[in-house]
């Protein structure tokens, strides 16, 4: 008796060769995998057009008639086969560029065909290139129905495993399974409650749809199932971790936070900052280890949130540390923390690669004795020699620079791990975060401090450089500073480097009365630091740089960000760069310079940048333009199970809905052992086993 679990090699019509191709190119190993190869589109074959009505702007058309002549024309690589097809109302040219001999030998001028293809114009005539053909006179299988079209690779097509063949295999599987209904994977109560179509019916409809409307219901059911099991898996892992992972219990918010809050606040925290501090405190207070991701757009005030969390640690007798990806950033953090803590008995130290040996020894000794409360630094913080007396909380800034996975291992030295707060300015769309970081807690600062002026963004073509220079001059004259950024994706690209240095020379000659500095990845660390310092201290007014300045640099007096060849940057990178200005009270500007000739995609990117400064909107747009895999910091994490029909970029509502339902279920039955839930446990085990097996094999 056939079963969904059966090896695809058992299916009718699948030989060894095709089985190998299905496995290699589509990751299909079982009947079920095959049925999850959903059509990427359906073509309406219910209408037959008359040849005389064909125009070149039509989409796919179906014709019925016969071939009256076939000719090989052209030489060498221009060789092609042309034929004339007629249905009595007119004639149209059909062209093949590949498989010429095969086509010529199989097409018979004595037979009638259904011909299916897209009209195009070639050599001043309307014709159809490489149509789909089906022999037949009147009522043939596909005519009069919606036909499913499947993705296949070039290799598959060459081996005859085209969309048609895929469909045939799928129909064979359905025929074989006929006597046995396809098993349900969701409990009946969910199917009823969420008005879902039974699984077997949904699968069948996807492949042999009676109408497009019913397909939508089937598709919804299958998307629901895919997203639901991902959420269930994430939440179950999360709840298991929670049950096991004990952490330091911070019993109170402590005297230090209270003192800071009452007497030392530099400004009123935004509501979002307050909410996030509460979320963090609840974790610290729970007795379990905190593993929280804090997302907040550039300038949203993550530093003060981190400080408050570290003061809670101090108030409970613990030390804290804060790690940044570069020395410049670590130094800036150190400076802003010391400033905010002015007048409070809290000792903060800075440890980086360039800390002098003598100083370093003192810091390390005082760290071990517990005299240092907060240690700020770079990677240097995780070296063996750095030993805390009682580390209770580690804050990691700008997570995507570190890599998601290794961070968890950083502080596993102690029996009880410290609480971890990871801060990122790369906004990750909520639905994606929920799925990829589904087993982490996520806090979001979704509000900027008051009075912040949104950066004004404009898109200029190169011709407007004179206007740009006039504008820059005016800003410089009023005491502001200016960034000019060049793309240098690969620091070794010679032409990019030339653009950068030419840009540097150009700015020097265009603005001789100001000092221009340059920063790029080829500089030695001390040269780079020196150039940075000049800009930070306003000795230099213009900085020409590559994206090395993207991360966190804070120069509030800089009000203009010019991005050269902006078409070469992705949306999230443009957004990060723009975040370098608009940090002070003055109105700031971002100018995107591009060529006149732009692709539709690029034009869209520029429009999005001009249209919004909201990082989450930009991340959502980025995800829609480039797919979820493109969002920085999420690639390594991956999904526990593959998606075949759901799309994280478009199905956000279903993600949220399935998450809510999964949460409810896990909350009331964490082990999924209630009789009505066992079906889900079995399905999860099955999915996990399969995900594992195939990854071992391939
Ligand atoms: P980011 O989230 O990018 O790390 P920062 O913590 O560096 O942001 O804060 C950006 C700027 O906003 C800093 O100059 C900081 O002092 C200021 N700031 C932070 N929170 C507030 C607030 N609630 N009100 C006013 N200014 C604030
Ligand atoms: Mg920051």
Strand order of the largest sheet: 6-7-4-3-2-5-8
Residues in helix, %: 40-55%
Question: Could you name the CATH topology of the largest domain?
Answer: Rossmann fold
The overall number of domains is 4
Descriptive overview:
This protein is of the alpha/beta class and 698 residues long. The protein folds into four domains: 1-42 and 151-180, DNA polymerase, domain 1, CATH 1.10.150; 47-144, Nucleic acid-binding proteins (OB fold (Dihydrolipoamide Acetyltransferase, E2P), Beta Barrel), CATH 2.40.50; 254-445, 3-Layer(aba) Sandwich (Rossmann fold), CATH 3.40.50.300; 456-612, P-loop containing nucleotide triphosphate hydrolases (Rossmann fold). Helices cover 40% and strands 17% of the residues. The strands form four sheets. Strands 6-7-4-3-2-5-8 form a seven-stranded mixed β-sheet. Strands 12-13-11-14-15-10-16 form a seven-stranded parallel β-sheet, sandwiched between helices. A hairpin with a 2-residue loop joins strand 6 (119-122) and strand 7. Helix 7 crosses helix 8 (212-244), helix 9 (254-264) packs across helix 11 and helix 20 runs antiparallel to helix 21. The longest helix has 33 residues, at 212-244. The radius of gyration is 31 Å and the shape is globular. The structure holds adenosine-5'-diphosphate and magnesium ion. Adenosine-5'-diphosphate (ADP) binds at residues 267-270, 273, 296, 298-304, 425, 449.
Please outline the helices and strands.
Elements: H1 16-26, H2 31-35, E1 41-44, E2 61-73, E3 80-86, E4 91-96, H3 100-106, E5 113-117, E6 119-122, E7 125-129, E8 132-135, E9 146-149, H4 154-158, H5 163-177, H6 188-193, H7 199-207, H8 212-244, H9 254-264, H10 271-284, E10 291-296, H11 302-315, E11 319-323, H12 327-340, E12 348-351, H13 357-369, E13 374-377, E14 391-397, H14 404-409, E15 419-424, H15 430-436, E16 441-445, E17 456-461, H16 465-477, E18 481-485, H17 494-510, E19 516-519, H18 525-536, E20 542-545, E21 558-563, H19 571-578, E22 589-594, H20 600-611, H21 615-626, H22 652-668, H23 678-697
Parallel strand pairs: 4-7, 10-15, 10-16, 11-13, 11-14, 12-13, 14-15, 17-22, 18-20, 18-21, 19-20, 21-22
Antiparallel strand pairs: 1-9, 2-3, 2-5, 3-4, 5-8, 6-7
Bound molecules: adenosine-5'-diphosphate and magnesium ion.
Magnesium ion is lined by residues 302-303, 397, 552.
